[in-house]
Amino acid sequence: MKLSNATLGSLPEGIKRPTYDRTALTPGIVHIGLGNFHRAHQAWYLHQLMQLGHAQDWAILGAGVRPYDAAMRDRLKAQDCLTTLIELDPKGQSAEVTGSMIDYIEIVEGNRPLIDAMTREEICIVALTVTEGGYYVTANGDFDEAHADILHDAANPDTPRTAFGAIVCALKARKDAGTGPFTLQSCDNLQGNGDILRQTVVGLARLSDRNLAAWIEESCTFPNSMVDCIVPATGAKEVALAKELGIDDAAPVTHENFRQWVIEDSFCAGRPEWELAGATFTDDVHVYEAMKIRILNAGHQVLANAAEILSLPTIASCMQDEDVSAFFAKVEAECIVPYVHPVPGMAPTEYADLIARRFANPMIHDTTRRVAFDGSSRHTGFLLPILRDAIAARGSIEGLSLVEALWARMCSGQREDGTVIEPNDPMWEALTEAAMKAKEDPAHWLEQHQIYGDLALHGSFSESFAKWLNMLWRDGTRATLNVYLAS
């Protein structure tokens, strides 16, 4: 059955669906970046609130800023912005249709429809999931004001290219009209994501209008948050799975049986009562996000590059592989967990055990390619801060050095079975060039200062990295992993 408002009442028995009147919903949130994660996470929490009879005036207007977002808009608009969520659990699967998003803003060059939507007085939150690498941050953590996109938006503030330029333009219109500010909420996997979003928005505004930048910094709020739910990419298999359940959904989402959302309660224009749907509000988001980013997100990178080299297709298959799963467990225990603080009700070792169980879920077809994507951002954001902490504490860095060597080996673009690894990073060409040079001299890899900064100057790391990379090329991945496991 083709998914739409008209067919909600006729969905197969057992499929949960909206019990609220979607025609009565009014928007309060613009969300930029309508990927699978947002639809399985933030939009789900809001849907649960609506099911309880709350938040009817907080519906989502979806948005994108790149031409490729238009395809998702077409798919979702054709089914009234409804989404089928399919929970995959070893004990069985279940499905529900969510309806908290009511429209998807037209995507045009210059982003005028998006700007106009954010200018509307009833919009109180602008949220983003634009990936970890989408915030124009340098390797040192500063705002990248020299980036071509940023230079364009600073010179053309009324016809911006980026989401942040559109936000600045809308806030200027609201300031001039006396409409007031809105909250800017990052939902990406970045430690201090709200602080990073503030840096980008205020930094961009300052390039064209310093008074506006000061008003944004003083009036808008940027709550930090931690988001957690494993959500694989959607392909033909997922579309077919929805059809097996009796739903013709062009963009269904599969997800695990776990969600967590920890949020700093800093909303200048109000917010939905997400806590009624299970979200946690706290003044100390940092410890939650540090635990998750270091153990889960960094853990993903521990697995993904070895898996790509060894042609292991999914994260679950990594956990079924004796060598790779043992490597994951040893790196987590010796190199990551020691640099994670506990959170209320959860010790780092307990969380690491939980992550291992979640990664091993055979129902979740989370590809190693998806997890390995954009390593230039994910290693910089997830792994290298732990490495710096380990160096400062004079702790073990062997496992993390091997993880970096595996990444360099993977970026050569060829698996050990001879198959080609297709480009999988915005910097892929430069990474491949550095990887091939590093095959002869490992120092070439660490000379990528936009990634490693001054880490190459730490002799213990550069020596360990060189040892492992040379071994990977000489002896192969499994032999190298086993040398590490025996150490």
TrEMBL record:
GO MF terms held by the record: mannitol 2-dehydrogenase activity
Broad enzyme group: oxidoreductase
EC number: 1.1.1.67
Pfam families in alphabetical order: Mannitol_dh (PF01232), Mannitol_dh_C (PF08125)
Mannitol dehydrogenase N-terminal domain span: 28-275
Gene3D superfamilies noted in UniProt: N-(1-d-carboxylethyl)-l-norvaline Dehydrogenase, domain 2 (1.10.1040.10), NAD(P)-binding Rossmann-like Domain (3.40.50.720)
Residue ranges of domain Mannitol dehydrogenase C-terminal in the record: 284-472
Keywords: Oxidoreductase
SUPFAM superfamilies hit by this protein: 6-phosphogluconate dehydrogenase C-terminal domain-like, NAD(P)-binding Rossmann-fold domains
Alphabetical list of InterPro entries matching this protein: 6-PGluconate_DH-like_C_sf, 6PGD_dom2, Mannitol_DH, Mannitol_DH/Oxidoreductase, Mannitol_DH_C, Mannitol_DH_N, NAD(P)-bd_dom_sf
PANTHER family referenced in this protein's UniProt entry, alphabetically: MANNITOL DEHYDROGENASE 2-RELATED, MANNITOL DEHYDROGENASE DSF1-RELATED
Name listed for the protein in its UniProt record: Mannitol 2-dehydrogenase
Organism, scientific name: Sagittula marina
